[in-house]
Amino acid sequence: MSQIHTHSSLKLTHRLRRLRQSEPMRALVRETRLSPDMFVLPLFVCEGEGVRREIGSMPGVFNLSVDEAVKEARAAHGDGINSVILFGLPDHKDDIGSSAYDPEAPVQCAVRAIKRESPGTLVLTDVCLCEYTDHGHCGVVIDDEIANDPTVGQLVRTAVSHAAAGADIVAPSDMMDGRVAAIRAALDERGFEKVAIMSYAAKYWSAFYGPFRDAADSAPKFGDRRSHQMDPANAREALREVEEDIHEGADIVMVKPALLYLDVIARVKDRFGMPTAAYHVSGEYSMLKAAGRNGWIDEPRAMLETLTSIARAGADIIVTYYAREAARLLA
Q: What domain range is 251 assigned to?
């Protein structure tokens, strides 16, 4: 057996391993801590009753009728998840997305039902038109282009209808210029000054939205979204987008996607110090699910590592389909 030689003359004042030797010790000095109350659970709300339809590309995530969405929100609240964000799946679509502001549409009905049946749940609503237009784009299309200002008008109507239904936070995700200021003004004029705005301030043109478009039936029928969503190569531009939304009245700013844009999250948090959200998007979720189901990774461990990295980058709020699973592991 070879001999192990110790260097008795070596005096280590700082042994960083001292603080890693047991779980209680590691927990004591942990720099980034996850908590269920920082998670927001997305819910896809559809027409009908008793509908709970699993999304093929997003195992464990479902299209839910209003009654089932209420059950999910209540169950999530029991897990410690205090916030949900609602996306609508209407039966009727047209070229201007008029169902988005129908007071009897799935989102508006779900807001009222959740606030009634689970009053401790904070309800956020996605404000965009892509789920409601028959062409799948995020706005009003004129001459094959998304017209910014007419789209903003539709978004304002949508946000006001969500606020009227009882939403706590409206979250414009369209990336149209000027929409935060227009929504803030409209909410205040109508007596909804207490309703907060969480702006998707830096939303990138990402390949990782695919499963979401499957879930929400919102894939564009022609073209793509590069004219309004951000170029993945740009980080300084994200700071300009965020700064503009803050000036226009955003209460919370979001970076989307999360995992591939940790540098942007960090820069946004460092620069502005605002409540900062990050969306752990469908493609990031589905990759972990697929790898876990194939036995390629330890999914629970990878999930918590992923969410920790997002928080470590500076996110105060994480929108994630893993919210309930993560909360149960953290309990």
A: 34-330
Q: Which pLDDT score, from 0 to 100, does residue 260 have?
A: 96
Listed as ranges, residues in the chain with pLDDT below 50 are none
Q: What is the DSSP letter of 231?
A: P
53 in helix, strand or coil? strand
Q: Is the pTM of this model over 0.85?
A: yes
Does any domain span residue 18?
Answer: no
55, 62 contact by CB (below 8 A)? yes
Q: Does any domain span residue 283?
A: yes
Mind spelling out the 3-state secondary structure of 140-208?
A: CEECCEECHHHHHHHHHHHHHHHHHHCCCEEEECCCCCCHHHHHHHHHHHCCCCCCEEEEEEEEECCHH
Instruction: Tell me which residue of 231, 232, 230, 260 sits closest to 245, measured CA to CA.
Output: 230
Considering its fold, how many domains does the chain have in total?
A: 1
| Residue of 71, 115, 194, 203 marked catalytic | 203
**221: annotated active-site residue:** no
Active-site annotation holder among 71, 93, 221, 256: 256
CA dist 37 and 130 (Å) reads 29
CB atoms within 10 A of CB 178: 14
Q: What's the one-letter identity of residue 192?
A: F
- The question of whether 203 is a catalytic residue gets the answer yes
